[in-house]
Every structure is written in C-alpha cells, then in structure tokens.
Amino acid sequence: MQLAQALAVAATLFASCVQPAAAVNNYPIVLVHGFSGWGLDELAGVRYWGGLHGDYQQRLRDEGFDVRTAVVGPFSSNWDRAVELFAYIKGGCVNYGPNHAKVYGHAATGRCFDGIYPEWGNVINGKVNKIHLVGHSMGGQTIRMLTHLLARGSKGAPVEEDPSSHTLFAGGKDWVHSVTTISTPNQGTLLANGASEYGDLAENAAAAIIGMAGVIGEGSTALFDAKLDQWGIASRQDGESLTAYVKRIFSSSVFNDGFYDLCMFSLSTFGAVSDLKWVETLSNVFYYSFSTQDTYRLLNVELPRPQSMILPFQPTATFLGSTYALKRGFSSEWQANDGIVNTISMKYDGKAPVVECGALSQTGRWHHLATFTTLDHGAIVGFKPLHDVYDVYSTHAKFLQDLPAQGSERRLASSDMIVHETSKDIVESLKALEEQFGAAKCADEEIAAPSYANTTTAA
C-alpha cells in the first residue's frame, strides 16, 4: 500500500514537471492599427493584422492567447484616436473632451461602443484587469498617448481637460501592463512633414496603405469608414468609389496645412515633439519596439529594394530616402525607411532610456527588440507574398505573457521600476526571427546585476 502511494506521488510530481508552465500573466493583448487602417468588418474581410496570410488575431487565439482587435479613426489625430480607443475597449461613448472640442472646432462626443473588454480596469481579488497594447505605425503613437492619459490625465497637453469631465481625463489608472510599437513613427515621419509641401503625399500614402488589401480602385465597392463623424465629413456615398472617397477626405478643408487635430500633424516630427512635451514613458509600464527597413544605401541617398518592397510604397520610400531630410537639418540616419516611416524614428520616443535587445526587461525604459531589414511597412502586418510574419506575433505574445503579473514583480532597490528576465526559449525564438527576416544582429545586452528590493505588490 505504501509503495503504491509512493508511486502515485512520484507520478504526480513527474506530471507536474513535464506540463507546460502556466502563463505568468493572462492579460489580453489588444491590437491597434495605424494611419489608414481598418476594422474586421471592412475592406471585404481582408485583415489589417494578417493581410495576405489570414487572420493573425484568430491564429493567435488558436494558440491560446487572448487577443482582441480595436478600430479607431484612420485619419484622426492621436488625441482623438486615443479617446476613441478607450471607449472601444472599455465600452461607452467617445468623449473628445469639451475643451479640446471647443479649441479645434469639432463635436465633443462621438460613437458609442459595447466594448471589446468591458472588464478592463476592474479590480478582482485585489488585482487590476490590465492589458497589453500593441500598435502598428500610428497605432503605436496612439497607445502611448492612451497609456499616459489613463495614468496621468491630460495635464501638460496642448489643451487640458477638467479631470472631472470624464473618467479618462482623471488619471490614476494603472491599467496598461505593456506597450509595443511596431514600425511606429515614435519621433515622427518626414513623410508627414513633406505632405505640407507636397500635398498629394498624404493622399498617395493613404491610397498605398489601403491598396495593400487589393480592393482599392475606381470600381471598388469594398466597405471603408473614415470615422470622421466629429468633423461632419459625410460617410462614403452610394456609388462613390474607394479612390474617390479617399480623395474627397483629403480635399476637405480640415486637412489644410497648419491644422493640428488630424493625422498629418500627429505623424509629423513637429507633432511628435509636441506630444513628447507631455506624453511620458511611465515607470510602471514595459515598453518594446520593432523596426522595419526596406531600403539600401547608394551614394548620398537611400533607395527602395525593388525585389522586396511593394510597388505602391516605392515612390514614398524614394522621397524619404532622398536629400529632403539632409536639407532640413536631419542626419543621414533619417534616410533609411520602410516606405512610410523613417527607421530611426521607430526605435523609441527619443527621450526615455532605450536598450538594444537583451533578455532583461525593465519598466520605465524602452527595449528595441529587432530591426527587420527585409520588410516594408505593410509586410510587417502580413502584406507581403511568401513572407508570413506570423511568428513575430506568436513569439511576442509569448514574450508578453511571460512578464510578471501584478503582485509577482521583482522591483529594483530604491525604485518603483519592475525588472524581469525573459525565458531563454523565448529569447532564442526572437534570435531566430532576426535570422529569418534579415534583422541586424544584436549583441547581448550587458547590464550590471540589479539590486532587488523585496518583492512587492503593485498598487
């Protein structure tokens, strides 16, 4: 009898050893599209996240990850997109802020949503329901601003809101566990700067991005919603082609040069500088970035790689790689690009600390995980034939899930910053992605052994 019991105990212990480790956190991952992006029910079902290679949200769910896709105004400013994103995730009606609306001359409220994660921010057993935010392109700027608004409110913004006017502007919400920006103009893109001088650049960029789905054209009837209700811009009309609709949007007076509450200013280097005056890298949030580049150096310019960059991006890549940057006081590092964004701008916000690669994550600083040198701005979300980048998202989902949940953190001594060493198998998977997609090799990060405070529970 004793032998049988001993064998049973041994079997149980063995089983517990070979079973996969439970996720360190189970916070949902929310995907946020960029400039000219679209939702799950638009563009004939072509997925923004997955493109030519299916539905990345569903593929991640099939692996067991809790992933949800958000949608916001494709041509709106980062402020408007951030407050729309809050309502879309949590549920409720969009509140652009009465002061903001008055200054910029648009409606103070917008659409209402059921919410894709209504439980967000609720406290269960003393723990806050948090999320991981992942943004592509302008989506990265948007999630950074939302994260700051949640934590600090609008203090310091060009137009401040009364904290009592809406819960988002009150601050005090530690609801975001990590921020990941992918091909994001964290310091702006010179393509948006150039749009003020060469007006068709913005329209051409929008057409190129929407055109990745293969549904744009004079005869296209595919659904696409600009979501500019706050400006009173009429929705797409019956019989109006997608091309004509985009042209009408960019012909609106609100897109005139010098207008600050739409995408072109937010995406420009001027807009990025304006945002950086008040949007901070928060000490209790993990920040990650991925970069893309699909140009090569020739004398004093960067040219698109014709064998890998999609044709619609090549004119804008040529513009970004020209001497435009040099003539306006930017270094030659600003010429390399992915067809839409200057690669140097993707690494971090230009202000907070940043480290290259490495397996040690720390809140309050940026971690630049890779620069993929064979992927353009659309390829990184799945719009490149024969180049399925799903493994980037699968690996990063594992990376995010490996982060410590609230209440299980290790903090640096004399600091509220959290540190975490990523599992070795995930680090190896990241290195494999570098080889697969031509990323510049990263030397392993050298960091002095940190001094830990006692494990504490986050507030």
UniProtKB/TrEMBL annotation:
Residues 1-23 form the signal peptide. InterPro entries: AB_hydrolase_fold, Lip-like_C. Its main location: secreted. It comes from Lagenidium giganteum. This is Lipase-like C-terminal domain-containing protein. The keyword Lipid metabolism applies. The keyword Cell wall biogenesis/degradation does not apply. One of its GO terms (biological process) is lipid metabolic process. One of its GO terms (cellular component) is extracellular region. GO terms for molecular function: hydrolase activity. Keywords: Hydrolase, Lipid metabolism, Secreted, Signal. Residues 25-384 form the Lipase-like C-terminal domain. It is found in: Secreted.
